[in-house]
Write a structure and sequence with these properties.
Helix content: 10-25%
Radius of gyration: 16 Å
Number of strands: 12
Strand content: 25-35%
Shape: globular
Strand order of the largest sheet: 1-10-7-12-5-2
Bound molecules: 2-oxoglutaric acid
CATH superfamily: Alpha-ketoglutarate-dependent dioxygenase AlkB-like
CATH class: Mainly Beta
Number of domains: 1
Structural class: alpha+beta
CATH topology: Jelly Rolls
Number of helices: 2
Largest sheet: 6 strands, antiparallel
Distance between the termini: 30 Å
Length: about 200
């Protein structure tokens, strides 16, 4: 890994194995209440390869008709999102350098074949708070560039328990997930990767 963009922090091994197991337990409870759904791109309706859900007072959703947005309820159940687990709120307090708690925590589930194209997180109403992202389960190849789509990018591997912070000048950096490395973690019984992304909405 060469020079990371200013404002991007890579914090390897933030959560040890027992903490990762506790987080997975908390996520299982969230998913029981707010089931994973398949998001679809605005206008085309093309389905994304990840499945997702949320916790927090707001959740990020997308569908063909209404596009990218935050809303207070699950698109299928109509219920409010479950609360963000305390362990994640504690992480935010420790590392975000932001005085208010996150409003949203997006939960992405990647199977072996899933990926996420290069994009900016810019559906939020303010960009002064960072995006704090936790990886669990199989490792992935994470790509990050600059704030313009054509800027050079670099890729590095994220493994279970790692945290990435996109703040400051990197808050609007393009980023994505090129691939999952199957069989690189025993944390999730059936394999795959979970990404948790806390944001102010
Ligand atoms: C997003 O949800 O906006 C992401 O970029 C997720 C990145 C990841 O899975 O590490």
């Amino acid at each position: 890994m060469t020079d990371l963009p200013d404002g991007l922090r890579y914090l390897p091994d933030c959560f040890d194995r027992s903490e990762q197991e506790a987080l997975v337990g908390a996520i299982r409870e969230i998913v029981a209440d707010a089931p994973l759904f398949t998001p679809a791109m605005p206008k085309t309706g093309k389905e994304m390869s990840v499945r997702m859900t949320n916790c927090g007072v707001l959740g990020w959703v997308t569908d063909k008709e209404h596009g990218y947005r935050y809303q207070a309820t699950h698109p299928a159940t109509g219920r409010p999102w479950p609360a963000i687990p305390d362990m994640l709120l504690a992480l935010w307090r420790d590392i975000s350098d932001y005085p208010h708690p996150p409003e949203a925590c997006l939960i992405n589930f990647y199977t072996d074949k899933a990926k996420m194209g290069l994009h900016q997180d810019r559906d939020e109403s303010e960009f002064d708070a960072p995006v704090v992202s936790v990886s669990l389960g199989d490792a992935c190849l994470f790509r990050v560039g600059g704030t313009k789509r054509g800027d050079p990018t670099q890729s590095f591997r994220l493994k279970s328990g790692d945290v990435v912070v996109l703040g400051g000048e990197a808050r609007l950096a393009f980023h994505g997930v090129d691939r999952i490395y199957p069989g690189t973690s025993t944390l999730l019984k059936n394999g795959g990767r979970i990404n948790l992304t806390m944001r102010r909405a």
